[in-house]
Queue: 2 jobs
Job 1
Amino acid sequence: MTLAKPSPHDSAVAAWHALAPEAVLERVHSSVEGLSDTEAQQRLEQHGPNILKRESQNGPWRVLFRQINNPLIWVLLGSAVLAVALGKVTDGMVVLAVVVLNTLIGFIQEFRAGQAIEALARMVPETVTALRGGAKVSLAAEQLVPGDVVELASGDKVPADMRLIAARNLQVEEAALTGESVPVRKQLPPVAENASLGDRTNLTFGGTLVTSGTGRAVVVATGDTTELGRISRMLGEATDMQTPMTKALATIGRYLTVAILAMSVVLLGVGLLRGYEISEALLVAITLAVAAIPEGLPAIVTIALAIGVQRMAARQAVIRKLPAVETLGSTTVICSDKTGTLTRNEMTVQALWTPEGAWTVSGVGYAVQGELQCEGRSVGEVPRTATELLRAGVLCNDASLHSQEGKGAITGDPTEGALLVVAEKAGMRVEETRGRFARVDAVPFESENQFMATLNEDGEGKRSIFLKGALEVVLKRCQSEGAAPEAVLSEMDRMAEKGMRVLAVASKSVSAAHTGLKPEDVEGGFTLLGLQGMIDPPREEVIAAVRACHEAGIAVKMITGDHQKTAESIGHQLGLAEGKVVTGQELAELDDARMQEVAVSSHVFARVAPEHKLRLVRALQARHHVVAMTGDGVNDAPALKQSNIGVAMGITGTAVSKESADIVLTNDNFTTIVSAVEEGRRVYDNLVKSLAFVLPTNLGLALILAFSVAFFPIQELAGGALAPLMPMLPVQFLWINLVATVALALPLAFEAKEPHLMQRPPRAPTEPVLSRFVVGRTAVAALVMAAGAIGLFSWEFRTETDRVGSEEAMREAQTMAVTTVILFQIFYLLMCRSLHGSLFRLGLFSNPMVFLGIGVLLLLQLGFIYLPFMQKLFGTAPLGWTELGLSALAAAVILPVIGAEKAWHNRRSSHATQAGASVG
């Protein structure tokens, strides 16, 4: 009989955990001896190999075409072709070189992305040990089929989704899939059908890691039908979001394209009406495209983002995708995983209880720094009952404590490691204690028993059995006298309310004749020593970081696979207590509209599955939020990719999460995200300053050209040729657009952050980059620049025509016009260092790169004017001191004009703020 291929959405497939092992074997038509080779081969043909399907990646040509398929690029390409056709080869080649440079930058950036599904595929092991016809065989993992019986041992990578049919002390690290902070102890009994992924303790999932124990399991899902495969599908469906700046630049590009094409057609018509030859009229249209398109802007944006990348790397944030730098500055919500990001990922005992008293424990993590306290004060000498409790925790324990890179570290189970650390804090030396109380025998922890027991001898012939485990398991083995069960349960509830994991510890004395532990030795007769409550505590610096986010208008949401009480406790300590804790099961029952409401109003989410994280991100985006999502596991990958800014953990993060993310934190610390947001806001401010600096130049150049076509006469040159009187040549427009603009705009990327950067709310995602303020500033500056350049060009041309002839006069006048625009840009740059504040707001010398850029440009401009080869290439002529002085005076007019505009704008904003306050 063959097994029908299950659908990934089949409810029966989703309920393997609710069935007994025998029922699962019957359902998959297998047995404890596994499948026969013949049956396995038939199922392999039916189900296919146990591998994840990989979507075909875009080839290099398609990626390359995407870089070219931009309206402004098409206009530039058309201009280059026309220029070459009209014999202006130099102009055409320069324009073409600009297109090639921008295309290469985008191509390299995009072609490196999109490797997440490849990383997922690498999580499946190469070989496994399976049973075929009752005999153990080594198989390639891709040959596994539903019904195969597989053996698991410590260190194995789980090859498929499987239902356990036998287990001994089996623990599996599932953090990458479920977000659970400690290894999961596996057991055989069925669990509730609606149990969350993390609570399906009788299943092992493909891609997870066996950390201890052994087991035997039957395969129930392979390849794309596994949980890993389901995440792979979600990853393929998740959408890479455009950044706010990317969207804004795309919108600007579309508007500019339409405006440039319309203006080119108008100027072409005006030129023909005024008697231009068709070739000259076309050249005017080409020149307009060259003048009005900000060719250097993509390079400016890319380099500004790259500078932000360097700064963030110094702050432990590695940027994988350049636009992520700018997106951070617009972030309105940060969704963070708990374990290792908000918390230390180091279990810490924080509370001790014995029938005689209770104590808190200071210090966090595996560092042996802290003490026992009572009501906030050190207890001094540790009480006898607390010593007995701590000693039992050390002896009934298989972990070890050591130092790693100067920090405390443990080997073994994190829970047991925490018991060793608290003993050291109380002055007990772990290795010395273990030497004095030698272990004789032990009953290891079994998931069915929920306890561990050891038999120890104290060196004087006295022997004791120590027992630790779940409270209900330990308590029923204790004598009725001693602590009242009600008091013990009440204390456990109190610890659990604080999100602590509670371990009970008990002991009993036995005779020296005991040489080993028998089942009846652990049945009863114990005395309860006490309880130890532990938790993975929040990082101390994260509390301040969350507060800083709130001050910056950024909501922080904790999304974890851990239990509800644990999440609630950590959320309260971090200041995220507003609203109720929502579980993944509750999220699954919400429709999209209600999901959006809950996603916005709630801040702590527990027992969350991968699809819930993805829905939460999409719900927040539907409410127009810019979402940063952090994570380290495979389960986080779809949400990381869907979010506007995916942030993966560099230390604990899986390869899948890193490939899906835009940013990787090298220290796995939430505070680094806050630093990155601050840097992102600074980058965005500086990009807006660059736009405010670059766009007036392009508009001003377009105005210069339009004015000359409409009003300047047609000149007869030597040889009788007719040519329009142009204030600048196309190649001179390119000189201004590329060399001058880039040399001056780049230093703006190094500007210091504006005051109160992290005390202002995030920029609304719908707010245009070209705000009314930027548009107004652009218009004012462009008019001043155009007026100065046109005025000096006209004056110089009329003055010099009678002396040197019209052709030479035109060269000198054009050189003077270009110089005026260059000097204008230098003065205007100083005013752009702070968009609203004075020239001295950020400190005159706070950014030495500004003066370096000015110095470089002045040297280049001197070469442009006076070097013979530059004169030949750009059609320039040398200028005298008078011409240079007049150009500087005309350009300097921008200083008082923009100063007055800033004062007016600030006064108006102040009045609006006061009016709003009075209304409030």
Job 2
Amino acid sequence: MKLKKSAEDQMIFLYRYVSLSLTSLVFLFESSRLIAWQKLLLIVFLFLSVTLFTWIYRKYRLHDMVLKCCIALETAGIILLLLPTGGMDSPFKWYVITPMLVACAHLSMRYSWTLLLSYIGLVLTFCYIFFTPGQYFLWDMVLQNANLFLVLIVTTMAMQVIGVMKNELKMAKEQANETMEHIKSIYHIMETTSHNEALNLGQVISDYTVKLTKQSRAFFWLDSQEEDAPESSQTGWTVEEEEQLFEELENYREEFREEREPFFRHLPEWGDFLMITVPMTTRFVATIGLKLGPDQSLTGRRWLVQQLIFLAELSAVFLERYELERIENQLIVTNEQNRIANEMHDNVSQSLFGIVYATHSLRQTWHDQSKEQVEEQIELIQQSANQAVRELKGAIHSLSSKKSGGPTWLGTVKSHLHTLSKLNHVQIDFDIHGDHFSLPYLYQKALFRIISEAAGNAIRHGLAKRIDVKLKLTPQVIKLSIHDDGVGFETARMVAGGEVVSAGSGLGMMNMEYLAQSMGGEFDISSRIGEGTQIRLSIPVNAYE
């Protein structure tokens, strides 16, 4: 993996060459036991060695053991370099600052101080033995080189302080990025639940539970048998395992109803779970569960508890909003039914009653009337029938979105894609061929969920800037194609044996495939790194029925 050079690394590496150049220049012009060509040869060797060590530091800066060995080796080389260049009088004694900088920047404080003290001890020992045997006491050498040792100590301390500040800034940046990701996830949850079918709400919640907590498996279980309730759903298990998991949860129904705080539960053959009951005032009782790993720390679990509390409160808002919308829709339908009933009673039924009465009267008296009178009566009956037809057409027209220009399925899809395009600055082209008015409701719901999920994945995970959605509707088959220019991924790593094995494959992919297969259709996805993703779907219209 190629690492990007930081500004700190660039400064350190630049200092290595600058300091070596200055030190070599002083060494070249000062008097010593070596002649000129020997000095030049030594300087060339030093530059080659520094280049080699610099390359190793750049390539293996994330491998602590390699760095430790190389820094120790370079420091030992500097100590040996003092022997032919004058001992404590050698200008290269200052060059030890360069490996010390690398150690302070990338390794622990303990190693840096151990390296410094080892260097001071070894330099004093070598120079005392080889250069001043019996002439000075060791303490005298320490005092004579106090400036060097003081500079090394101060430099090490300064680099340690800078390292602490750098780590704090790095942690602050990571926390800021995590907060931004959290806010983006909240926005995506709100956006998804606003545009998705309510019956898909459980899948949205379980998907984002996995995303926010950075775990691999979660579920949303709703204790309700009503047909209009959102469906229980999960993320991370197969469809077969989902059924078994929810059957297991049925055994704890009464216990879950009594819980008011996050709680831990061990499910036989399933493992340890962190769960929370969603606090709601509606007719539903829901539970959010998170599969815990075997090495989950106490601090990590506290953070997961906080995330689940937040998700539970957010889920309660979504479910209560769904309940209010359901009640509102029922009231709207009831009011509309009452309005139409009143209109038919006041207009259509009265006209039909007049037609029936006039027809009965004409049948009884047409023998006693002239031809002109009979024709006049028939004409009046015809006018009344035409009036009743017009009134009936008006009532039908008010109910039909196709005729009245009201909201349609196609309008809902276009509005959703337009909102995604504006909010995320993405170009989305939607091309449709065929009669969408005759599309059955079940197909409308499934197609909307697939289009919404695919577009959302392309934006959030694929970082796409353009999405092309093509839908072809015929009486026999529905064909859907969704192509984006995002970063793409390796599909071979995404699915193996029907299970998602890569966390980066995008949430909801298996849900889209399941929707297509449940309608009797075929689902295919193709993608490559850097070449975007294409989803193709083919559903026979009569398969589901």
